[in-house]
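#data-curation
PF: Archiving a pair of folding outputs for the training set. Convention for this channel: one message per protein, sequence first, C-alpha cells after, nothing in between. First:
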Amino acid sequence: MTKKGFFKKYEFVYNEYYDCYLCPEGKILKYTTTNRDGYTEYKSDKNICENCPNLNKCTNSKNTTKVVARHV
C-alpha cells in the first residue's frame, strides 16, 4: 500500500534491459539486493534525491533514499 499523497509504485518504470527503475523525475534506482522473501530491491542515490523537488511525494525516509521492491 502506498501512503496518500505519495507516488504509486506504477509511476516508477522498470527497465528490463538495464535491470533498474526510473522514478517520475527520470532518475535511476539501481538494484541492490534480493531479500529472503524473494523481493529484489532497487534504491535511489541519496545525493540526487535530497535535492529533488518531489522528495516529499516520494519518501519520508531520514536518509532520503527511495526503495522499490519487486517480486522475483
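PF: Second:
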Amino acid sequence: MRYIDWLPEAYEISCQFKAVAKGRSNIYLVLLDFTDRNGPYGLYVGMSKYSPAQRFDQHKAGIRAAGSVLKRGIEVLTGPTMHLQYIKRSEAVRIEAQLAQALAAAGLVVKGGH
C-alpha cells in the first residue's frame, strides 16, 4: 500500500468531534480503494453497536453490507475514531453525519455517514 497523504488530516478532523455520554454505539472509518476511479483512496464513515473490526468483517461477508465497503473496503482505520467508541446512540448518529460532511468538505472521497 502507498502512503496516504491525507490521513493526518483525517485524524485532525476526527479529533474535533467529542461525545459526552457513554453508550453502546461506535463510530468507525474504513479505508476504500478507488484506484480504478476518481482517486487512489477514500473513506467510509459508519456507526454500529458492533466493534469497528466486527462491523468491517460483517460488511466484507455481505451482512448488512454497504456496497462501497463490500467491494472496495481495505481495512478499518481505528486510530482516528478511537475516542468515539461506546458512545450514546443519539450522539453517534449526529457525529457520524457531521464527520462525513467534514471529511468531504476537506476534499476527501467519502461514502456512508447517513
